[in-house]
TrEMBL record:
The keyword Aminoacyl-tRNA synthetase does not apply. GO terms for biological process: positive regulation of gene expression. CDD domains: PBP2_LysR_opines_like (cd08415). PROSITE patterns: HTH_LYSR (PS50931). Residues 1-58 form the HTH lysR-type domain. Belongs to the LysR transcriptional regulatory family. GO terms for molecular function: DNA-binding transcription factor activity; sequence-specific DNA binding. This is Transcriptional regulator. Pfam families: HTH_1 (PF00126), LysR_substrate (PF03466).
């Protein structure tokens, strides 16, 4: 039993003739007749009889009408679903990223993507870098964002965006009007730094060591948000990722470039054990375009 035979049967029911059904389906009248004959051969009984030039359905045919219509409607729904999947208009995307990245630049990226794909659902989660790697490797998440460098053999990393390092300074601080701040400028200042062990933290410490300037770390934290909050209250000067700190810049807090330049690089990560599905690929391309235009 073919789908085309069912379509021919349904068209004849609705139009009352093979000629009209052929016109509706864009086929020839002999073509419609052949499809009807194949269907009758398959099911083993006659479906129509002729009366005054019209094809009249038998009682058996009328019994089949509703089920045939439901079947054809199901096929249409499958076609629509497949089309939505093809154009990434349907599905659920699971992603993992650092909390500060989600609250910062990723918020606009996700919002814009959801507006363009209203039937897509997104699950956002945040974990430590170690845990995030494993979640993506084992495909518990479709994709993620991580700070480079990254060399996990189970991940595919697509470089996405780079960000410089800045000093978050209270607008009332004596250095707030400086165009650039160096290690020498910060030698006598209380500092707010993100937790030890980060690659960027090591680069900051090495910069001070090279210039033989002691660091006066007054407050340590693990988020850019907290660092900027205390910098705004003039507890110290926070040395932070510019891209993540931009959302906290206000009348009470200014962001001043830090020298030497320290670059923070982020990648879009997926599992090396399977290719990206269409929705993940669409989201990746969306992210890539957004960051290329924004930064």
């Amino acid at each position: 039993m073919s789908l085309k035979s069912l379509e021919a049967f349904n068209a004849i029911i609705k139009t009352g003739s093979a000629t009209a059904a052929a016109k509706q389906l864009g086929l020839t009248q002999p073509g419609i007749s052949r499809l009807l004959a194949l269907l009758e051969e398959y099911i083993g009984f006659q479906l129509f009889y002729r009366e005054k030039g019209r094809l009249i359905p038998t009682d058996e045919a009328l019994t089949l009408v509703k089920e045939v219509e439901l079947t054809l409607m199901s096929v249409d729904r499958i076609a629509l679903l497949a089309n939505n999947i093809f154009h990434s208009n349907l599905g659920q995307l699971r992603l993992v990223a650092p909390n500060s990245f989600i609250a910062g630049p990723l918020a606009d990226v996700v919002t814009d993507f959801l507006q363009k794909h209203p039937r897509v659902k997104i699950s956002l989660d945040t974990h430590s870098p170690t845990r995030a790697r494993e979640i993506v490797v084992h495909r518990s998440a479709d994709c993620g964002f991580i700070q480079l460098p990254e060399n996990h053999p189970g991940l595919i990393c697509h470089h996405l965006v780079s960000s410089n390092t800045v000093c978050a300074v209270s607008s009332t601080h004596k250095l707030a009007t400086k165009k650039v701040l160096s290690c020498k400028d910060l030698g006598d200042e209380d500092l707010i730094l993100l937790g030890k062990g980060r690659n960027s933290r090591l680069q900051i410490e090495n910069a001070f060591l090279r210039d033989k300037i002691p660091m006066q770390v007054r407050l340590e934290t693990h988020t850019v948000a907290i660092a900027c909050t205390f910098a705004k209250r003039n507890i110290g000067i926070a040395i932070v990722n510019e891209m993540l700190a931009q959302q906290y810049a206000s009348e009470g807090l200014v962001l001043i470039p830090f020298t030497p330049q320290i670059v923070h690089e982020y990648a879009f990560i997926t599992s090396a054990h399977a290719p990206m599905n269409r929705l993940t690929e669409a989201f990746y391309q969306h992210c890539k375009t957004y960051f290329e235009n924004k930064f």
